Every structure is written in structure tokens, then in C-alpha cells.
């Protein structure tokens, strides 16, 4: 049977599902081409791709046959609360009950920290304010509603990439408008309100680059981040394409400078070696490590259909009332996707709110023993995962092995890591010196976390991201 890519969680948003299928076929083609390019250290020809395809661990399921006995599994879930927020604590915020280091307030920040320092502007040079939930970078974002007294009344969590909505907007824009109206309860939203009327650019010290083309879906529109509202992920790194590409780039065995294989036991060492994602996240190192583990154990694999990032579950024991009883499951509402309690969740959108007729409130809950005041307290109990389909490689010894692409520096006195080609800035020390051949230390202009697998500043997020 021919492989067909379904939409995440089997959604039926597309009037013609072939539009999504064709997009995912193109993405998978580009992943294979990128892997072969890494092996050959040059741009591959189609003949190169066909020669190497069967030796790769990552499989394009429409170009090769997935065995009937292949096994689909969920990889180990990662925590939904951003590790980077915790690593940057304490935050310079006024004291507040239940948030000693400021992390629970800092994580709800709206801004542009997910891009390099600079500004957004339109094609005419007019400055634009395009904030996102720029510190929620674990493929999980949330928005909360409060009453007049500031008490939480509803928290909505999402794991849907903005690039899915961008592709849907290309072919079924009214469906996107309708979803926005439904999830924001704002019937004034129009197609024009979600469209970039002029080209959007990012201006940095390095110049100007295109972020969104004129006429395309603008994922950083104001309706997705207005108080209490959320439709899809907004952080630049939280794209579905990032997940797909990270799974691909991790499909090559890596060797250190001395020729020994990277064992993958240390997930941060691996992500620093393949330069495939953000080492300060919970998500990227975990995804890379488990994909790499499949390679090391002689498996071939592909991301399981339907490809998506899903809310894996909730640590129910951590959310209770004052008497110790857990929050009832009917307070959790699966809005898109399903299976939260079945061990194989494909939930994309989840709401926490008391059901009609319930007299108790969210403010009556305790998260980790502390009164529930911040949505981030619940996010700390949430996890995210994805699924792979795997089978044994017929010739595992033929799988290619390539060099590490880089390493990382660690901030002295902190766990914060930044990507490196061998040199470290002042205040940082080399964390994994054996990954690449030591180069002369050179000044590093800007100490910042390693770039995540998100669209680069000159890659418009109109389509799923296809390049590293």
C-alpha cells in the first residue's frame, strides 16, 4: 500500500489532504538530500541520493517500502517547561508570591527574543511590533484566562506548529480564519488580518532578511498572542519542520576528532556535535539522542504517520486540591487530538478548566504543593513527545559515519551552553573539547545559545522549514 502522509492527529482541516501529503513528501526529499550532502560533503546529485538512500538510517517512506512488521513507538517525553528559562534564572523581577526566582512570570513574556537582536520592519521600512511567546520553546505554549481578581479560570496548552497553519492558509485560508475565530472567540477576524500585507523583514547588525513574504500567512499576528488567546505555537523554533529536520540530522553516526564514535549517552554532547538544535532545551537534545540511539542500535526509522508533536501527558499527582485529592480528569478537555490518558497521546490542544456546574475553581488547586497562581506551574507537570516507526537495518554496517560539526562552550558558573566551532568568548569554557579538532581560539562576537532548528532569518516561514 502506498504511504500517505496524514495531517497531525489525523485532523481534517485540509479540503484536499494531498496538499499536506505533497508538502511532507517534499520535506522528506530534502532531508534525504541533506543527509547525503553531509556524507559526501558536497551538494549531491540525484544519482548520489539513489546510491545512498538504502544505506541511510532515516527513511523517506514514499520512496522506500516500510516493512509490514515495523514497530511504531513514542519516544521518551520531555518536559514542557523551558529549560532555558530555568538556566537563566534568577530573573530581575520584583518579589512575588510563589515565584521566588521569577521564572514563572518570565516564561510568559511576549517579545522577540526568539530572533537575534534587531527589529521587524515592512517593505517600506516601517518598524513592526510582532511579539511571540518568545521564552516558551519546548514545542509547548500556553495562554491563560483570569477573573477580575486575577485568579486563573482557564489554561490552554498547544503543540501545533505555526508552519502547519501557514501551509493550510495557502490552500484553505477560510479554514484558518474559522479556527482563529473559534479558538480566540473573536468573530471580527478576517483573512486580511492574518495576512502579511507587505513583506516582513528582520533587520539585524548583519543586514535585512525576509521573514514572511507579502500575501502569505503571518504567524506572528496579534490574535495569536492577545491576552488569554492562543491558536498555535508562536516561538520561532517551535515549528513542525524543526522536529522533522532534527529527526533527520540525527540519523547519521558521528565521530569525534580522534575517530571514536559519539556514544550519544550525553544528549547535550550529541546536540553540540551535530549542531542540530538548541542544547539548552529539554526537547532538542532528547529528540536527537533517541533518534541517534536508533542509529547506534542498527535500526532504520521514519517519523510515524501522522507526523506531529503531541502533548504526551500530565503528572496528575502534582496537581491537587488542599485535601490532597487529584484534579478530576473531566477538568482536562482534549480540543484537538485525543488519547491523553491512553499512553499514546496525540493531543494537540488541551484546556484545563472546571466543567460546567463545578463550584471549585482553578485557584483552589495546588501545583507541587503551592497554590496555583501561574500557568507555568501546570506547564511544569506537562510533557511532550513524538512517534517513530522503526525496523532493523538489513545492513547496519553500511550506514555512514561522519564527523562532528561543532561543539559547545559553557558559561562559567552556569549550565548555559552556546554553540562553538572550537573557540569560546570571555566567561565561557569549552564543554566538549574532543568533538572537533581544536582550532585557535578566536573572539566570539556574541555569546548566545546555539541556533535552534527554526527558520533562519532569511527563510520565510511560509512553508515547512527544509534546511538547517
The helix content, as a percent range, equals 10-25%
Form type:
globular
Low-confidence stretches: 441-468
Main sheet record? 4 strands, antiparallel
Radius of gyration, in Å, reads 22 Å
Report the total helices: 10
Beta strands, count: 22
Q: Which strand order spans the largest sheet, edge to edge or round the barrel?
A: 4-3-7-8
Oligomer: single chain
What does the average pLDDT come to?
A: 91
Q: Strand content of the residues, in percent?
A: 15-25%
**Coarse structural class:** alpha+beta
Distance N to C terminus: 32 Å
Could you describe the 3D structure shown?
This protein has 468 residues and is α+β, with helices and mostly antiparallel strands. It has 10 helices and 22 strands. Helix 7 runs parallel beside helix 9 (283-296) and helix 8 crosses helix 9. The longest helix is centred in the N-terminal third of the chain and has 23 residues, at 18-40. It is globular, with a radius of gyration of 22 Å. Residues 441-468 have low confidence and may be disordered.
Amino acid at each position: 500500500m502506498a504511504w500517505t502522509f496524514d495531517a497531525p492527529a489525523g485532523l481534517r482541516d485540509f479540503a484536499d489532504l494531498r496538499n499536506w501529503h505533497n508538502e511532507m513528501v517534499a520535506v522528506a526529499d530534502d532531508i534525504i538530500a541533506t543527509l547525503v550532502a553531509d556524507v559526501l560533503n558536497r551538494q549531491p546529485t540525484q544519482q548520489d541520493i539513489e546510491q545512498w538512500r538504502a544505506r541511510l538510517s532515516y527513511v523517506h517512506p514514499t520512496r522506500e517500502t516500510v516493512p509490514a512488521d515495523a514497530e511504531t513507538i513514542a519516544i521518551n517525553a520531555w518536559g514542557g517547561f523551558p529549560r532555558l528559562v530555568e538556566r537563566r534564572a534568577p530573573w530581575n523581577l520584583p518579589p512575588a508570591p510563589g515565584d521566588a526566582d521569577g521564572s514563572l512570570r518570565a516564561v510568559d513574556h511576549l517579545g522577540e527574543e526568539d530572533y537575534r537582536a534587531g527589529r521587524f520592519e515592512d517593505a517600506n521600512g516601517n518598524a513592526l511590533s510582532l511579539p511571540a511567546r518568545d521564552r516558551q520553546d519546548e514545542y509547548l505554549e500556553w495562554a491563560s484566562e483570569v477573573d477580575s481578581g486575577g485568579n486563573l479560570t482557564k489554561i490552554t496548552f498547544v503543540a501545533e506548529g505555526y508552519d502547519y497553519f501557514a501551509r493550510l492558509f495557502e490552500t484553505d485560508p477560510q479554514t484558518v480564519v474559522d479556527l482563529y475565530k473559534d479558538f480566540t472567540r473573536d468573530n471580527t477576524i478576517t483573512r486580511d488580518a492574518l495576512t502579511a500585507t507587505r513583506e516582513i523583514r528582520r533587520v539585524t547588525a548583519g543586514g535585512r532578511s525576509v521573514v514572511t513574504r507579502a500575501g502569505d500567512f503571518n504567524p506572528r499576528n496579534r490574535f495569536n498572542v492577545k491576552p488569554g488567546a492562543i491558536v498555535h505555537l508562536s516561538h520561532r523554533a517551535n515549528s513542525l519542520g524543526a522536529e522533522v529536520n532534527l529527526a533527520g540530522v540525527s540519523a547519521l553516526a558521528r565521530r569525534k576528532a580522534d575517530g571514536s564514535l559519539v556514544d550519544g549517552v550525553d544528549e547535550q554532547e550529541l546536540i553540540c556535535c551535530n549542531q542540530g538544535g538548541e542544547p539548552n532545551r529539554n526537547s532538542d537534545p532528547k529528540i536527537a539522542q533517541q533518534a541517534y540511539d536508533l542509529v547506534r542500535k542498527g535500526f532504520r526509522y521514519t517519523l510515524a504517520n501522522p507526523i506531529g508533536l503531541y502533548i504526551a501527558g500530565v503528572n496528575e499527582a502534582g496537581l491537587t486540591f488542599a485535601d490532597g485529592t487529584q484534579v478530576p480528569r473531566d477538568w482536562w478537555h482534549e480540543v484537538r487530538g485525543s488519547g491523553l490518558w491512553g499512553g499514546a497521546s496525540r493531543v494537540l490542544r488541551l484546556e484545563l478548566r472546571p466543567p460546567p456546574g463545578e463550584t471549585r475553581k482553578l485557584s483552589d488547586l495546588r501545583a507541587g504543593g503551592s497554590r496555583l497562581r501561574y500557568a507555568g506551574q501546570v506547564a511544569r507537570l506537562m510533557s511532550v513527545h513524538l512517534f517513530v516507526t522503526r525496523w532493523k537495518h538489513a545492513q547496519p554496517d553500511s550506514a555512514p559515519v561522519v564527523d562532528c560539526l561543532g561543539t559547545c562552550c559553557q558559561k562559567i558558573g552556569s549550565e548555559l551552553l552556546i554553540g562553538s566551532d572550537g573557540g569560546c568568548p570571555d566567561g565561557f569554557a569549552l564543554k566538549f573539547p574532543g568533538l572537533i579538532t581544536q582550532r585557535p581560539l578566536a573572539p566570539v562576537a556574541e555569546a548566545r545559545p546555539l541556533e535552534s532548528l527554526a527558520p533562519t532569518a532569511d527563510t520565510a516561514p511560509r512553508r515547512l522549514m527544509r534546511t538547517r
